[in-house]
Write a structure and sequence with these properties.
Chains A, B, C, D, E, F: It is an enzyme of class 2 (transferase). Chains A, B, C, D, E, F: InterPro entries: Aminotrans_IV, Aminotransferase-like, BCAT-like_C, BCAT-like_N, Class-IV_PLP-Dep_Aminotrnsfr. Chains A, B, C, D, E, F: Keywords: Aminotransferase, Pyridoxal phosphate, Transferase. Chains A, B, C, D, E, F: Its EC number is 2.6.1.42. The structure is a homohexamer. In chain A, a hairpin with a 3-residue loop joins strand 14 and strand 15 (262-269). In chain A, strands 8, 9, 10, 11, 12, 13, 14, 15 and 16 form a nine-stranded mixed beta sheet that branches. The first copy, chain A, has helices at residues 29-33, 51-64, 73-87, 132-135, 137-140, 167-179, 222-233, 245-249, 281-294, 298-303; strands at residues 9-12, 15-18, 23-25, 36-44, 47-48, 97-104, 121-128, 142-146, 184-188, 194-196, 201-206, 209-212, 238-240, 253-258, 262-269, 272-273. Chain A folds into two domains: 9-129, Aminotransferase class 4, branched-chain amino acid transferase, N-terminal domain (D-amino Acid Aminotransferase, Chain A, domain 1, 2-Layer Sandwich); 134-303, D-amino Acid Aminotransferase, Chain A, domain 2, CATH 3.20.10. The first copy, chain A, is an alpha+beta fold. Chains in contact: A-B, A-C, A-D, A-F, B-C, B-E, B-F, C-D, C-E, D-E, D-F, E-F. At the E-F interface, strand 3, helix 1, strand 7, helix 4 and helix 6 of E face strand 3, helix 1, strand 6, strand 7 and helix 4 of F. Strand 3 of chain E pairs antiparallel with strand 3 of chain F, so a sheet runs across the interface.
């Protein structure tokens, strides 16, 4: 997973190790139970974006997942910045990187209990932000496809706990790709309302308004939050509401939001064109606002990687 | 996680490595997605029990989880026996061991797709079967407690895919332990019917019949299957049916089934005694039948560890 | 919709008219409300199969749909036989025909009420049983694919009312065809259990047993009933139970049942092979038993049309 | 269905035919599958009301129902106006007419597929707007009664696809009429929230606010939209929210909205008086505002027909 | 509530008091919380029927409702027989009586807790078994009508806890009586399956089999159990299964079971005749078997009261 | 339940009786059916608070519960004030009292019907407002704990009917107390959303906003309404929205509202601290505003009782 000759460095529970040596015990709770919370943030022009907010959310996830972490948020922020600094040499000028946190409940003991008995395993790594796979969607739009399986209900595991027990989402994604190998999945909740993408949120533009599911059935994404703020700055009405397949079929515009690509327009839904089948004006306007906010052209960066 | 001076050996994707060195990349799909299927079997008197059936079920899980494994079932069986042989020196005469298989979709590539791009990561290990934590439940019974969170519904991720995306179950277990730190959780499905324990199935004895949920909302446990067979051999009626909290409150006997302990009697449910508050006769009869089937005293083995 | 030069004759509310002239008012309740019940039966060797049972079920549908029909079952049977006789000249020796009944609540009056104010519209027609589209599935198996939309719940409209308000099923079928243009859809109910195909029922063979959903969430198909009877005659265990996607992924065999093709093997489910990917032995055995029961080779008849 | 000696003319897939000759094949997808989308608009003083909006919604329904129509919206509008013109001679001065569009997927071919193989069947007709059945409800209010059956859930078929697969609604209406032959049904969704009337929407007035279900479980009615606009113009607060039977029992006022009658007050709900049992002031105010908007007295028009 | 000049005697928490003086504090948990469990049994020819079983079930209800009763089952049985003896003088030769137990958690203390702080309030009374209201249903059948409200789900309060928190059932009964003042309500569960009557169970006869909901959504009635036993003695197949409105509409026979009337035939369901609209043969056969079992003519007893 | 030597007086269906003699027949519908609606209001400085609003809500409950009360609201208000006056001598200067209304459908007749045949039983009493049990929660906060059982769904019995069929809530409360004997229960609805406390509503403070479930799944509490008004006066944003366990775990502040204690802060949820584990600033600010509104220190009053 490296780019270039020099090795990326990963922070692993107190040590900075080369990426290829970043290994954890097969008895770690992340492996044995998927008991691991996570954050994925990114840089723009090598500067971390909303990193404090990501770390705040991480601590909320830790609490609800009942994982005890031996660092304060401030310490974790500093460690993260150290990881970023250690990997700066690998970042090309026009590129940026992911910053990923994975925190598990540490190594497990097999037996009747399930409480955390060891310190949390802390994995923090950066990664070249490879955007090639998404780049053409900025101009062509992607194909959004409903999966057959449904999202984990909040009474089972709240989607706002950003976690690594993602098998359900992985299978849902594979189902959507049966329709189109490049499809981006739209996962419905068990009542049939739109929930989320495998790793992002979803917006529709209809009647000139921006609409997105409220967070009672999906991740409270920070990219989602950024879009809401940008839209409100642009004077757009933003409504959190139940969306259903009908809303996607009849929307003027649809886009996903997620950390790596920020916003990904969809121009097809379940085989039918969305709006006029082209990337929509409000989507472009919001992407431009985001680019302006971070002082660089988000789309151009991705397209340079093609 | 070792016992004694010699190190256990773990099979890790083609190599036999000492347990302490059994590490996987933090970019493995098991860590990043909980995308890992599993089996836990055990030995009785150092002989594997139902190992072929566990491997068959593993391949069913692999298929539905869309993980491609580079071995045939026969090859995997042979590798497993090799692992067992490699660890025989660590097994004391009266003890037995777990045999655990974890198969993930291998190392991931961050980006838009989620298909498996690398060979599966194969983790096979044995482990001293530490029964101390459960031993007293054979005579005293455990305290079964309903969790507040509910099981993953089958339309989200079928419980019969024995998988490692277990955060929901881990949190449910912690919830039950709020009532009693030694509680064993009883997880209800989203309709309020009894589903399963964090890692096992559940039976009640009422009106002289053995009753257990059908597998449309829980794992199709092989210990569960063993109990059903033993009960039928004993002439007991076994019914797969919906069970609800009322059935547990009013049962004559309740027990859990799982690989390590086989059967674990519960004598209390949500703070109230089950039946007369003692381990029941049919439970004991079935445990004895199981001991007879495997040629050793299951309860005595556990109690020797106290 | 005719074959050959002579025109088929349709019974239309008291008259026998050529197929091309079989037209109904656009104010008919079948057009304006989908308020129309139906039966589809067929002949084997030009003899109607289970026609009385189809007519009995039709009267059950009429009752629950609150449509009053001005004929007794015996009269309707006689009319049906007359239609069949009128169309015998069009039936080639090796061919057979559909016999379809559609009964609507007659012509409507626009306004506040919705009670039937006119005599029922009675449409009875036969049709060449064109099996070409299904013929290759007898040997190759079809591709069963889960739709994204879910079946009409019984508390809304019971699937056992065989009715013509089929838009939900038509859309579900189109969704499945996004995966494969020749897919046969598998519609789940709102709880995620397998319900039915657009126009048929579904069976799996697992552990040597035949399993099919009970009729609380699907049509009580007469082909389904025939398969159950044939299987029991063959000494097979038949269980009506909840089935879920997992059951189809892990089945040894899967097949659909419906009037025109009797049984249609599926060898692929959501892109993965079912069993060994070939039409299964029990499926073939049951098809053979059916052929024997009706005194003709069902598969050969279809294959002659290729 | 005619008034007077001259015959109304119906547009039927390219031809203008007398109403009595407006017939379609019994093999049409509207008859065989209820696969037909629809719009019902009306005139006020012989001028069509919101016709463009109805046609827009029709195209949204066509898209989601995957019916291909061979006309552009502009063409369809022109055809509609032609139908209206052709029938103007039948309209008395004080009367108005329905304008109904039914578009099906055309004639079907029996067999494995369900794709549209023939051009859409286009049925456009006007009809004398017979208001006699509703006229007394403007002054006395109607009796709103909950049906036993529940609305089609959106995950099955979105209510916003205005469609002709209406058997569930027809049966629900008959159930409500068991309580009172003149009852207007109130259909609940599968969670027990108020959804819609057989062919209209529903509002309550409570605490001086106008409240109506949001469109995630009911038709997005244009009469509903008109009431919302009129209310906002009058300075009333309008809230889209979940309503339950309690809200109707305890409302100050309740009314239905639908194209033919615009607004129909209800003064009784499940046998109990609504408010003081009389048509409420806000209902009357909104009706008056609507009358003003269309330049004629809506209530007087209906009452002239008694 | 007395018959004749002498007063019935009621057992009230240790005392035998005349019925008119049988009063409890308005601070009793039965009044303030409906926190009261109950049994209703009856005599046949002045002998109690299944009294031990009723008392057993009462103790199951007490346990799950967490009400502590200061008597053993044997003591309670003796007290009950004393009540019966005390009231024998009031029983006419051909008549019988109810035996009702109500046990509440005693007098409450207002404040933060809800635990039982006082001894249980024990109310045991007999009552003339007034059958006049049901008598004609034995020959004419009653009208079964679905309520609009749904049964309490088991995840809220298990119907098998026979309890006095019956407001939901009382309202459901009133709803059914909107259709017919003599209607007997059929309450559906929240999934739309038949649950129970306000105070009894429900059976259908179809295809020669007796079918009734399993007790996961309804009271485990002892009359229900008696019918099952009688039917099995008669060689009838009895199936516990999900029933839906369709099953009642299309049944050959339908009847309710409850302590006072044993079995009550229904000949109409939601306005439509059941079977041929007459009391069915199997219903009569089972009623006769019950009469034989208890050595008296159940129907004749009721009809003498008309 | 008295304080001091003098007896409190209770209004019981027309008479003023000493509390100890306030008894009702065991045949009352409140005892036999829990068919009883209720209001609990209180005084501040001996003056009733929102009494008219409580009486208005009582009449709404009576209507939906189909209980006929022989008094007008104005009469009931006057009777209530008379009860209050009769009990003023028992009120110490610094204390206050509950005012409780219980209205049942009167004495029942056993038999097939369930209509009200006797006048309503009217129970109106005051009670010393014993706050000792809650007093320390104002400073320490209470422990909020999720019950295992779920709230009664509105399609069964709307929570806005303030009623005495409270067994489900009583059991849920006992379940929460398994975790902590002083726990205050948080009951989820059947979809897993926060509904209500056994006898109160629930608010969270997050992101500086006040959030509470909308009343479609919980009681429309008047204390809840008071908090909303006070918050809006303080310039706080108040949102009615779905809340889930995650919202409570991650809230900055949580509090309950109910008549006796007005607001009760929670500082622990399911064993984890809420916010910083101390009573929050907004909670204190709102409590202070309430104290100011009623002209007395609510917290001090409670603490004087310790």
């Amino acid at each position: 997973m490296t780019e270039g000759s020099q090795s990326r460095m990963v922070y692993l529970s107190g040590e900075m190790v080369p990426e290829a040596e970043a290994r954890i015990s097969i008895f770690d709770s992340s492996v044995l139970l998927g008991h691991c919370v996570t954050e994925s943030s990114r840089t723009f022009q090598h500067r971390p974006f909303l990193l404090e907010q990501h770390i705040d959310r991480l601590y909320r996830s830790l609490k609800v997942a009942r994982i005890h972490l031996q660092h304060t948020p401030a310490e974790l922020l500093q460690i993260t910045l150290n990881v970023l600094d250690a990997n700066r040499p690998m970042m090309a000028t026009g590129d940026d990187c992911w910053i990923v946190h994975n925190i598990s409940a540490g190594s497990l003991k097999l037996g009747p209990g399930s409480n955390q008995v060891n310190p949390a395993t802390v994995m923090i790594f950066t990664n070249h932000l490879a955007l090639r796979g998404w780049a053409r969607f900025y101009t062509d739009g992607c194909h959004a496809v409903t999966s057959m399986s449904r999202a984990v209900p909040s009474q089972t595991l709240d989607a706002r706990i950003k976690n690594r027990s993602r098998m359900a989402y992985t299978i849902a994604d594979a189902e959507a790709r049966l329709v189109d190998p490049d499809a981006q999945c739209v996962i419905l909740d068990i009542d049939g309302n739109v929930s989320e993408n495998k790793g992002g949120n979803l917006f529709v533009v209809s009647d000139g308004e921006l609409r997105t599911p409220s967070t009672d059935n999906c991740l409270a994404g920070l990219s989602r939050q950024t879009v809401i703020e940008l839209a409100q700055e642009q004077g757009l009405v933003v409504r959190e509401m139940k969306l259903q397949m009908y809303d996607l079929y009849t929307a003027d515009e649809v886009f996903f939001t997620s950390t790596p690509y920020c916003m990904m327009p969809a121009t097809k839904f379940n085989g039918l064109p969305i709006g006029d089948g082209c990337v929509g004006g409000i989507t472009q306007q919001l992407l431009a606002a985001w680019s302006e906010r971070v002082g660089m052209d988000i789309v151009a960066q991705a397209q340079r990687q093609i």
